[in-house]
Amino acid sequence: MNVNEDVKRRRTQAERRAATRRALLDAARALFAEKGYHGTAAEEIVRRAGLTRGALYHHFEDKKDLFRVVVDEMESEIDEEIEKAERAEARLPEAVMAGYRAFVDAVLDPEMKRTFFLDGPSVLGWEWREIDARHAVGKIEEGLDALIAEGYIEPQPVGPLARLINGALLEAAFFVAASDDPEAARDEAWGAMERLVGGLMRRRSPAQR
């Protein structure tokens, strides 16, 4: 076998492994949304994916490990929606708030609500908050640094403030997820969030005075 053939063979094997992993994740995500984590058996996942239990345990430690990856991917999708919402606003304060709003709005999606916001904390416990913090806290800190730099917020340490804001956003999402009327709950929670974060903001930055 020449070098080119060996490279091609290894690439094909890697592509097959990636396709198998993707099939397991897609099947698991669909079933978790339909039946919840606890209502979904590993056998159902491999059957939906058209694979074997051996394939599942080759790529993941167990069903919980598979769920962990699904949750992390969902958080990445929320990140994309946040960035899209931020880009749609011209002014920095509105962009920051639009990003926060996009996170709270994510719970209105039934799949996100069940898998990410309800089953996620229940199944993964504190690890779920660590996953969320890994995605969210640094981004919130960046926004706060920018607001401080442009004079919209008084200079202060952003680390604790970012974690407090992230905690408030999580509680707003949980409030919506627990409601029988999610849209009304979202409006209530968002109104409270606007008042909370708005209290930090100056009406105008010094540069605008």
Jot down its keywords.
2 domains; 209 residues; Arc Repressor Mutant, subunit A; single chain; Tetracycline Repressor, domain 2; mainly alpha
Could you give a quick summary of the protein structure above?
The model has no long low-confidence stretch (mean pLDDT 92). The chain is built from 9 helices and no strands.
Question: Secondary-structure map with pairings?
Answer:
Layout lengths: L2 H33 L6 H8 L3 H7 L3 H25 L4 H14 L4 H15 L1 H24 L8 H20 L4 H17 L11
Helix pairs in contact: 1-2, 1-4, 1-6, 4-5, 4-6, 4-7, 5-8, 5-9, 6-7, 7-8, 8-9
CATH architecture assignment of the largest domain = Orthogonal Bundle
Order of helices and strands: HHHHHHHHH
- Which outline best applies? elongated
Radius of gyration: 21 Å
Total number of distinct structural domains: 2
Strand content: under 5%
> How many H/I helical runs?
9
Largest sheet, in brief, is: none
Distance between the termini: 73 Å
Which stretches of 5+ consecutive residues score pLDDT under 50? none
Derived from helix and strand composition plus strand pairing, the structural class reads mainly alpha
CATH level-1 class of the largest domain: Mainly Alpha
Proportion of helical residues: over 70%
Q: Predict the CATH topology of the largest domain.
A: Tetracycline Repressor, domain 2
What is the overall pLDDT average? 92
Annotated CATH homologous superfamily of the largest domain: Tetracycline Repressor, domain 2
- What is the count of β-strands? 0
Domain HTH tetR-type: 18-78
DNA-binding region: 41-60
Protein name: TetR/AcrR family transcriptional regulator
Pfam families: TetR_C_41, TetR_N
